Every structure is written in structure tokens, then in C-alpha cells.
Amino acid sequence: MKNETLIKKARASLLNARLNQPFKIATGAHNSLENVLFEIELADGTRGFGEAAPASHITGETQKKTLANLQGTAKMLEGLSACDYLEISRACATGLSDNRCAATAVEAALLDALSKHLKMPMYKFFGPKPRILATDMTIVLGTAEEAEICGRAIAKRGIKSFKIKLNGDISLDFARTLAVAESAPRNPVRLDANQAYPPAKMMELVRELKKAKVQLELIEQPVPKDDWEGLREVSRKCGVCVCADEALAGMEDIVRLIKGGYAQAANIKTAKFGFILGAEMARLCVSNGIKLMIGGMMESLLAMTASAHLAAGVGGFDFVDLDTPFFIKDNIMRGGVLSNSGVYDLSKVKSGLGVTPCNYGIKKTPGAFAGTVHGVQMAKKSRI
Ligand SMILES: [Mg+2]
């Protein structure tokens, strides 16, 4: 098997696409998908794909640097065996420590190729059976009216939970959240402040929303990432599950979170942690009673499905936030793993990821996700 799994070729290329609308959060915005595709080809002709998602306004990584790093890595991988994925992963984690999304793309391509070679779905690297994952859908920053229209559209397509981005303006955030909650009263509401609030203000917003009978399910990263005491204060006092996101940079932060009781949940993002470490972090959280979210950056169906394989295999993920393929206007990926109502069902995947870039000539799966039906398109029709 070793000869068949030798990496014959590897290459990196730009992966760009238009969005339906800018993806605006408190720390910045994505106006288009500007990622990097990484591809390896094994000696037996099997191809594996990975996606690097640099989020300049969050991690400081750039598309240009990520492309250059992956082009350099591609040369070093040629001639190695994909079976040595753990060793390669460790080397990339060290060599690309300031460009983690690049290391993630290498891991994804290796696991995709290897699982295709073994004729098994990728989730089997993490667990025997795939859990069904139902993603929430994000309502990005905007007006209360836009939030309400998006909320209705999201509920209409069958997605069961909302994730509302907050910007720190308490009256606007209150009005937007209330508008969404009223648009679909039975759907749980998750808030993602992206570090926009001081602890006292966050708790004030939660109190007001509770008074208005809004059913809050989760609050993600309410306070600045370095304010661990503030994070713990909100977690202990607000009466809603609090999830750490930007505060988590690696395993040491997961250990800190568990030991100090700083939050009830952790957002595991493969773009930051990769798959091997991400799975280890997730298992450590589960065994210590910490709830899990699987999340991502601005990623196409390729990267989000790779994260879905991790979450579906490891299990224990209470919150699924893998919705950015719905924000991408261009149809750049093929595969039938994500339904229009936001359900990732990996039981249909025979081998590998189950998603392939469109320009690789794979026949389109019947019923494949088209990536063009989106709440914001309805908002545009309503001239918002
Ligand atoms: Mg977040």
C-alpha cells in the first residue's frame, strides 16, 4: 500500500467566488470568498482536496501568503507517503504555525485522498458512524428589518436555528434579535458577539431579551478574547450557555477553559486547529462536560464538509455552525451532502469527503446543493 499512497503531485491554487452579500461581523467583513485550494495526487491516481480559509480580520492570515506557503509545502510533500499523515500534520503544525489554515488544507487533502484510497468515508478517521448534523444559519450585521426578513427566509427553508451576529450597539442588537425571534418564535436563537461587548453590557442585553421572552440558546464569545475573567463572569451570571471562540488559539486554551470553568462550550474550528488536534480538543471537552460547537471561517462546501466529517465522527457536537456555503453565489463545489434545509448527511458518502471542486469534471450528484438559494436573495427581492 505504501507505494500506492506515495504523493506523486501536490499543488495549490486560488479558490475565489462571489458571495450573495458581504458577511459582516463585529471585527470585519468578507466581501468574497478568497481561499486557497490544495490538491494532492497519489501514485495510484487518487486525488485529495483541502481548502485553506484565511480570515485576515480574525487571524491576520492572507490569501497571498497562504498560497505561497502551500506552494512551498506542495514541493516538500512530493515523494512522501500519505500514510504518514500524522507525521506530516505535526511538521505542518510547526512549520506553518503562523498560517494554520494552510496546515489544515494539507491535512484535509491527505485525509480525503487516504480515505478515498481505502474506499471509506472520511468520518471513519474519527468515529465509526456519522451523526446527522443540522447547521444553524447566520444573520449578519444589518438593520432590524433586514434581520427579520432573513429570519423568515431561513425558517421557511427549514433551518431550525438562527445565529445572530452582534456589533455591540445594545439597542440595535436588541431590536435585531427580537425581530428574528418574532419571525420564527419556535426556533432557538444563538448570539455571536465576536468580542463586541464588555461583560456588564452583555448581561444587560441578555436581561432585556429575557424580559422580552426571547429564547436564547447560546452566546458565543461575548467579550474580547483576552478577557477570560469577563468570559467567566458572563458564563456564571447570565443563565445562558456561553461558548468560547476567539479566546481559543490552541490546546492550552482548552485546558485553561476546562480547569477554570470559563465557559460552558467551545467552538472547534478546523481552520484554526486542523483535524487531528481539533478531534483531540473535542474529545477532551466532551470528557470534561464542555459542550461543543463545530464552526468555521468563510469556507466553501469543501472545507465545511471536511469539518462535518470530524464532528459527525467524533460526536458530542451540540451546536453546528457550518452555513457559509449558503452565502456563496457561485457554484464551485459538487457533492450531495448538504440539503437546502441545512442538514449534513454523510451516510451517503462512499469514500473520502464526498465533495469535489466543480472544475475537476466529476459528474454532478442528483439533488446536489446548488449554493444559490439564500435568505438574502429574498431580502434583495424585497428591495432591502
Ligand atoms: Mg464565533
Give the class from helix and strand content and strand pairing. alpha/beta
Question: What is the residue-averaged pLDDT?
Answer: 91
Give the CATH class of the largest domain. Answer: Alpha Beta
Strand content: 15-25%
Would you write up a description of this structure?
This protein has helices at residues 56-59, 63-77, 85-95, 100-117, 144-156, 170-183, 199-211, 228-237, 251-260, 270-273, 276-287, 301-314, 375-381; strands at residues 7-25, 28-42, 47-52, 133-134, 137-139, 162-165, 189-192, 216-220, 242-244, 265-269, 291-295, 317-320, 333-334, 343-344, 356-357. It folds into 2 domains: 7-119, Enolase-like, N-terminal domain (Enolase-like, domain 1, 2-Layer Sandwich), CATH 3.30.390; 124-381, Enolase-like C-terminal domain (TIM Barrel, Alpha-Beta Barrel). It starts with 6 loop residues before the first strand and ends with a helix. The protein has an 8-stranded parallel β-sheet with strand order 5-6-7-8-9-10-11-12. Strands 1-2-3 form a 3-stranded antiparallel β-sheet. Strands 4-14 form a two-stranded antiparallel ribbon. With 384 residues, it is α/β, with parallel strands linked by helices. It is globular. The protein contains 13 helices and 15 strands. Mean pLDDT is 91; it is low at 361-384. Bound molecules: magnesium ion. Magnesium ion (MG) binds at residues 192, 194, 220-221, 245, 267, 295.
